[in-house]
Amino acid sequence: MRNMSKFIRIDTSKSKARVESVPSEYEFHGGRELTSSILLDEVDPKVDPLGEGNKLILASGLLAGTPAPNFSRISAGAKSPLTGGIKEANVGGSAGFLLGLLEIRAIIIENQPETKDIFHHVIVEGDNIQLEDASEERFLGNYELARKMIDAHGKGISMISIGPAGARCMNMASIAVLDLQHHPSRHAGRGGLGAVMGSKGIKSIVLKRIKGTRLEYTNKDVFLEVSKKWSKHLKTTKAGFSKLGTAMTVGISQMLKGLPTKNFKKGTFDGADNIGGEALHEMIVERGGKFGIPCLPGCAIQCSNLVKDAAGNQVTSSLEYETICLNGSNLMIDDLDTIAKIDGACDDIGIDTIEFGGMMGVLMEAGRYEFGDKDAPLEVLEEIREGTKDGVFYGSGVAAVGEALGVERVPAAKGQGFPAYDPRVYKGMGVTFCTTPMGADHTAGAAIFKRPGLDPNHDYGDVSENKGKLRLSYELQVLIGALDMLGACYFIGPSRDTLEKVATLLNGRYGWQGTWEDLFDKARKMIGRELLFNQGAGITSQDNDIPAFFRQEPSEPTGLTWDMPREDLASFWTERLD
Ligand code: SF4
Predict the structure, then answer these.
(1) CA 432 to chain centre
(2) Domains of the chain by start residue, with CATH
(3) Residue 266's beta-bridge partner residues?
(4) N- or C-end of the chain: fewer Cβ atoms within 10 A?
């Protein structure tokens, strides 16, 4: 069956949009594979990330809009202002499903308006695409914007938007997507892609549902049967995840002594129990919040939550491990109420909670604030929201702030702040931070505790040993890369078994005749293209390392250092992609 999808291309210099059919060479490209291919084909790697030559691509996966479990995420891709290299950040919410249903494979945003104060809302209703003036609303928070757009267009819409940080082109700006409760709580956080959207003068993209839209399948019965069985399996095997969410990782990292604490000085935190999965679950239940909610249609795992304050008012959704750790243990704050407020404010302002927490750790390390000061992050967030001189500085990210303040201990790789895994303890994660084309990004090859690579019977070594970690990181980077091109949430499990099921689904949807090996190979080639882009941008294998202090300073209390041989990191891809 021919793939009927289309592209929407928006020329922001002319305030015009047009619909194109998907070129044949991209017929079976989706998600990250599509964003990275378009960037390589259409963008000079040397361009200014916030200049007119960069493009922002929002792509749906090949199975978006279907009942397949967890397959309707959006990939956002551009040259990153934070890393200076290629970036893809994917996000849940309701927009990916709608893009799939409307058979919109990608929205490509290019060029720039004449002046920096010109902003637009893009309203997509089938092939009718209108650009409406948003200049007066450019600094609105995501929450107020969502209320306005829902009032104007109804609850059936989805929306992709930026907050004031994106409108001011701050390097830590994120792209928000409405969740299923109509809150702009899901974010493509990493890489500062919200700044690229802001540099194009696009405040929001509103997607309207067209009644009666139906997708065609080559073999719908097979597709539905596999989807149904898989959903059922995920619901039973991931029930703990649904109850405690990703916050349960606080306890695991504490047990492994790899929970980033006090700007990555230590691996354990005395207040860990106060901010872990059980504490969060109790707080949610007591206050009438919600746990076990899906962030996108068809999610079978449902790890999302909605957190309320003591008075029963919603503070944020969804509070997750990375945010809790970077803004909790990393800052020596053991109060979930404060962390929930930080999360809610970050979502409203439109910034990445990982980059923000990492930057706050550096500010505390520099002595601008005390570790444990609960008011400090909220004060800094208001500076960022208002775009004061200090706020613009803070919004520039972990690496830039650390360098400007002369801080030696700056947890960042290739310009991007570390996620919540101490690489001295989580050795496989460390390899991923060093080698992925995406900068320090755990989602690119998440070597969490006990996760194997392609072969579950192979000995990949203990989490804190170097043994097996080059292979593990490589296999996970390719497996997760394959899921990224399909629009999948990798919580379904990056494995050969998963790719086998996906191959059957692609066959049921499009009549695609490939195997799991074909998907694995496509993902390898995708990473190869991303590395090529980075090479053109001046990022090479010699940059494959993490800051020196991780090699010199033992983590407390394990005494472990980062001791992966530099030459193994430098030759990581040449050995595996050639
Ligand atoms: S498992 Fe969690 S992150 Fe993944 S799609 Fe479901 S709710 Fe979203």
Answers:
(1) 15
(2) 6-207 (3.60.9.10)
(3) 261, 556
(4) C
Cβ neighbourhood burial of 266 (10 Å; 0-12, 13-18, 19+):
buried
Condensed to tens digits (0 to 9), the pLDDT of residues 321-340 reads: 999 999 999 999 999 999 99
> Which tens digits make up the pLDDT trace of 433-481?
999 999 999 999 999 999 999 999 999 999 999 999 999 999 999 999 9
Ligand 1 mutation pick, 187, 295, 317, 442, max ligand atoms within 8 A of CB: 295
* CA–CA separation, 1 and 7 (whole Å): 19
User: In the 8-state DSSP scheme, what is residue 45?
Assistant: T
398 contacts: CB under 8 Å, gap ≥ 6: 355, 358, 359, 361, 362, 410, 411, 412, 416, 417, 418
User: CA of 22: how far to CAs of 69, 206, 527, in Å?
Assistant: 25, 21, 22
Which residue has the least CA distance to atom 4 on ligand 1?
A: 489
Q: Kindly give the distance from the C-alpha atom of residue 177 to the centroid of ligand 1, in angstroms, as a whole number.
A: 14
How far, in Å, from the CA of 299 to the mean position of ligand 1? 6
Q: Which atom of ligand 1 is least distant from the CA of 492?
A: 1
User: How many whole angstroms separate alpha carbon 339 and alpha carbon 287?
Assistant: 16
What spatial distance separates the first Cα and last Cα of the chain, rounded to whole Å?
34
Please list the ranges in the chain whose pLDDT falls under 50. none
| Ligand 1 proximal residues by C-beta, below 6 Å | 70, 92, 294-296, 299, 301-304, 489, 491
For atom 8 of ligand 1, the residue with the nearest CA is 295
* 8 Å CB contact between 502 and 223: no
Cβ–Cβ under 8 Å, residues 374 and 333: yes
pLDDT in tens, 389-416: 999 999 999 999 999 999 999 999 999 9
CA of 68 to the centre of ligand 1 (A): 13
Q: How far is Cα 392 from Cα 435, in angstroms, rounded to an integer?
A: 30
Helix axes 469-486, 427-435, angle to 10 degrees: 60
Cis peptide bond upstream of 557, omega within 30: yes
Neighbours of 129 (CB within 10 A): 18
Query: What is the pLDDT at residue 4?
Result: 67
Cα-based distances in Å from 227 to 30, 133, 176, 240, 318: 19, 42, 28, 21, 26
Cα–Cα distances in Å, from 437 out to 445, 481, 540? 11, 11, 9
Q: Which of ligand 1's atoms lies nearest the C-alpha of 303?
A: 2
Asked if the ipTM is above 0.90, the reply is: yes
**How far does the centroid of ligand 1 lie from the alpha carbon of residue 489, in Å?**
6
State the DSSP H helix or E strand holding residue 96, giving kind and residue range, or none if neither.
Answer: helix 95-101
Residue 47 CA, ligand 1 centroid: distance in Å: 34
Chain Cα centroid distance, residue 10 = 23
Who's near 103: CB < 8 A, 6+ residues apart? 4, 5, 6, 65, 215
**228 conformational bin, left if phi > 0, alpha if psi -120 to 50, beta if neither:** alpha
